[in-house]
Amino acid sequence: MNLLNIEENIKVVKDFPTDEDLKNVIDKTHALGGLVIVNHIWWSNATNQSHRTVLTDHPSREKLLELGVDGFEVINSNVFDLPTYQFVLENKDKLVGVSGSDIHSPDVPSYAWTILNAAGFNRSAIMDQLKAKKTSYLFDPTGSPYLPEFSISSRYYKLSMLNDIVQLLYSFRYYDHGTYSFRGSFCQPSITQVYAQMVGWGIFYLILVFLFFEVFRGIAYGLWYLSRNLVARLKSARKRRNTNHIQ
Questions:
Q1: Does the keyword Transmembrane helix apply (predicted)?
Q2: CATH code for the domain of 118
Q3: Which tens digits make up the pLDDT trace of 185-201?
Q4: What CA–CA distance (Å, rounded) separates 101 from 37?
Q5: Among the four 7, 41, 49, 207, which has the fewest Cβ within 10 Å?
Q6: Is residue 218 situated within a structural domain?
Q7: How many CB atoms lie within 10 A of CB 10?
Q8: pTM: predicted TM-score of the whole model, two decimal places
């Protein structure tokens, strides 16, 4: 959930909050003059990777409305959430719809914008329109043609190879953590499966690389040893010739 127009943190008491915990957060936000917007409920209620069922204990739209939320995100990324949009319309006296309110990274296109007829480009005017539930949307499912300009830091280049090595090691196992709760935990049981054959082949390839390296090192050492002996013999032969010539 997005908690808008508040200036203090509201702590969620546990990784898997109950309806009562959510209600307390919503009430606290309202007491601070804020609004509570539910993000991407279509994604939250979808199946995740190997989990074949949705989150059975995730609050429904109806339950969230009962708990007191002020609105829903009806467009997230390039997905127009039609059921949620219709739910907002059916409860337009209680709910406001927004779009593109859940952004994680600047390196992806923008797909949706919330349109407000605000009196000014300032916090107060924007919040007035949201509280009045006077919003519209601009939606482009193909995404904006331009991305924000940003530079990659030198620290990224410094650590990039180490990250790639770690990702390579991660490939030896399958780890499904379920749906992320956005609180450092996950909403479903974790599933870990180690690919034993892949580990075995990985060890085999490492041994193979080591053997090739040792063979190459042996050949290189042998060539160096032969060349050194050859040079020594040539010097010795030249020295003997010079000695015989002087005599």
A1: yes
A2: 3.20.20.140
A3: 777 677 788 999 999 99
A4: 9
A5: 7
A6: no
A7: 14
A8: 0.68
